[in-house]
Design a protein that fits this description.
Layout lengths: L6 E7 L4 H14 L6 E5 L2 E8 L2 E8 L4 E6 L5 H6 L4 E4 L14 H13 L4 H5 L7 E4 L8 E8 L4 E8 L2 E8 L3 E3 L2
Antiparallel strand pairs: 1-5, 1-6, 2-5, 3-4, 7-8, 7-11, 8-9, 9-10
């Protein structure tokens, strides 16, 4: 009999419970013989910046809400075990109830894994490298709407010194990168 190779399958989970499903499956892989058939469980996420109380906060958001990706050999009881895991609805499969779970194509797996790797570094961090002499506009705080020129950049603390004119006099403001935007 031909040896089955591990392929990627998609489990439909209750939305918001993906992390719990991953936690339960990881524990089962470690503590039972499920580890022989299931090699990894993945929830692709992306890092997103949100504003909370005037501060930029880094959060992780699921790329595919309600789905958990599993690399497994579906033999014997493995399909039953995965399907009956807490908070799992079923495998992603064809329209008929009797259809078997379909593995993801290699191109889909590469795109999913590539997207997961690419999103490890938030894009906003790369875009916020300001340069001395650049003109910026203050978009948050008591000086909202003022424009000025960058005098100093502190990349470690993500702060910049901006010279703005208040009542015709040049005044230095120390601001966070998230408080300003480039003037284009």
């Amino acid at each position: 009999m031909a040896e089955l190779k591990k392929e990627w399958y998609v489990l439909r989970a209750i939305s918001g419970k993906e992390a719990k499903v991953k936690e339960v499956l990881d524990a089962a892989i470690k503590n039972t013989n499920l580890g022989e058939y299931v090699s990894q469980v993945l929830i692709p996420t992306e890092k997103v910046y949100t504003m909370r109380n005037g501060k930029k906060v880094l959060k992780e958001r699921n790329l595919y809400s309600g789905y958990v990706f599993v690399e497994a050999k579906l033999t014997g009881e493995v399909m039953y075990e995965l399907r009956n895991t807490t908070n799992v609805i079923d495998f992603l499969r064809g329209r008929s109830k009797t259809s078997l779970p379909e593995p993801l194509r290699e191109s889909e797996v590469m795109r999913m894994l590539g997207a997961a790797d690419d999103l490890r570094i938030p894009q906003d961090e790369l875009a916020n490298e300001y340069i001395v002499g650049e003109n910026v506009k203050v978009n948050f705080g008591p000086f909202t709407g003022f424009t000025g020129e960058i005098r100093e950049v502190n990349a470690d603390k993500k702060k910049i010194k901006v010279e703005v004119k208040i009542f015709g006099r040049p005044t230095d403001l120390e601001l966070e990168n998230s408080q300003v935007e480039r003037i284009i």
